[in-house]
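Section: Multi-chain targets

For targets with more than one molecule, the full set of components is provided together so that the structure can be written out for the assembly as a whole rather than chain by chain. Components appear in the order listed by the source. The example entry contains two components.
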Amino acid sequence: MDDKPPLATNPTADTADPVKAEQRLLLALQAANQGLWDWDLQSRQGYFSPSYYAMLGYRPGDFPSDFEGWKVLVHPDDLDTLLADLEELADSGRDLFEHTFRLRHRQGGWRRIIGRGLVAGRDADGRPTRLVGISIDVTEQTLAEDALHESEARFRAIFDNIQEGILIHDIDTGAILATNQRACALFATTESKLLASSMQDLSSGEPPYSQAEAVYWMMLAAAGDPQTFEWQAKDSTGRLFWAEITMRRAVLAGQERLLAVVRDISHRKEQEAELRHNLEQQVQLNKKIEEAQNQLLQSEKMASIGQLAAGVAHELNNPIGFVHSNVNTLEHYLQDLFAIVDAAASDGEGSDATQRLDAVRRLIEEKDYAFVKTDVAELMAESKDGLERVRKIVQDLKDFSRVGDSEWQLADVHVGIDSTLNIVWNELKYKCTVNKVYGDLPKIQCLPSQLNQVFMNLLVNAGQAIKTKGEITIRTGADDESVWIEVADNGSGISKDNLKRIFDPFFTTKPVGKGTGLGLSLSFNIVHKHHGRIDVESEEGKGSTFRITLPIQPPAPALDPGATVVAE
Amino acid sequence: MMVYRVMLVDDEEGIGKALRRLLATTPCVYHGVTYQLQVEIFTSSLKALERARHQAFELFLVDYRMPEMDGVRLLTEIKEIQPGAARMILSGYADLNALVGAINEAKIYRFLAKPWNDYELVSAIAEALAYRDLLVEGERLADEARVAKGTMSAEDGERKRLEQLEPGITQVKWGPDGSVILDDEFQLPDDYA
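Its structure, encoded as tokens over all components, is:
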């Protein structure tokens, strides 16, 4: 475009001047990158304005202005339709012509051109003889449009093919304005029917899944807070299904809309129901296990007490035996004393005071009053001591075997150890020295009777590990968070092979009748339930040390009586 | 009148004292015969055994569960030293093993349970003493007959009689160097550590 026409200095100057007018037109065309053309349809000769050539990258006159010369620039695929269009124009009698086709650019490539023309002359038959118009290069616009179309198609495909149903509601009326294919499939209906549906039609109608609640959700979403909720929906056949609906306000094409995304969650709901069912069964099962475990615990406790029965019975029957016998003796002594008192108080005839005194003295001598007097004091002291022992043993037994005392409470571990030791003492005292090395322990949150059972198992085991003579040492201590209790014996110890199995249920090395094989297994469970731990050190021939560590305040779940414990 | 020596062994002091009172205040009678008793109490089975080596008793009444040596064991030892004495166990509890041991090894006359009935206990003692007298009498008569028939020497008969009065008196214990051990110390069995 080296030969630009001179710029008009005064575009509003005399419009009647034809030279100026043409110049103005050509300038305008050039500025708009549009070309002017003029075809004589009979001679097939034409005229192209300089801007026409410029549009295609040529200088004026670079290609001939006849139809044959121009035709080669037309895209071969577009030529036939162009010719057909021209033919059709001739037949139709219309004056206006418009056709879009491609022309080759001088630098290669195709430009998309819209040619718009007007029939400017006709022959006697009315067939067009002259066509004048302009051509506009719309390549860029077309490309943008194509991209838009493509993008729209792509979005439509996504819109229709995503797994979620989409409903676009009018924000004011709630009416469904648009929907995708998936929504139609979900509701087993066609798009037109779905667009005509109300929320009533699409809901189960059972509160809280009825029209009123739907309106409520839509109001919340319309207020600007996106809402996600589960909905019992109904399809066109009346089948109910579960949907998760996400509803939010959105601006679509400049309009406020409610966008509802509907996801079928029937499957998830089924799974949830199944899961819930399984969970319920699990809870039931756990409860049963818990019950069984409690029963086992109780049985083991009773069995342990049974094994201790020999010692306890012996310990009870000794004091009962001598107290009972002493009471009989006391009765005997009292009869003697009454005889003396009666003699002193009697006023038998013919007896004077001196004779009575003699009789009394004789009786005192005869009944050995001096001995009785001292012996009664001893007898009473021994008997009281015996009764106190009976009371204590019974109290210890009661403390130890409390049934159904499954309350978590703050308790002093030392009290538990001592009362347990009293029960077990009868087993131990014939062959063991028991050393107590107690530290300062805070009270801990625990199940005292169950802990006692653990102490008993450890003490009985320690005692049984000692064949004839030995020592048991009970040590305790605490740090900020936990307390520990150690029961050490210098008995037979545990072999390496057995050490791995001592916490297994029913594992025992004791002779029949001496152990259930459940003691340590249950002890382990009890300690586990307290969120504590048991550690063992043992050397064959040297003895064993069991150490229990218990948290002062177990984590909250431990307080749940339904919590189950599984041995590891 | 014969005085019968009775040894009571129970690690529980209260039992011994109560029994002593009982036997002091309650006449021990069987079939019209009253047995005069002299009671010795031990709380240690080892000391009791030691005493039994030197003093003859007509009756031993011992507890079953005791720390140093249980009642069956003690009576079994005593049976070796004083086979003619009556043996009884008084126990607060006993399992089958204890009973089997008491009957088969210690060959006791009675097994009495704690707590006891005073009357039954005293009767049992009287009965046991009467039975023991009967056995001793029978043995003595048999020995007399044996001496008369010449199947036993008068010396043997006398030795047996002395042995009953003073256990071990007829036996001499020789030391490894040929010396005579007069006062043998009680040796615990090996498994009593």
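Chain B has six helices and eight strands.
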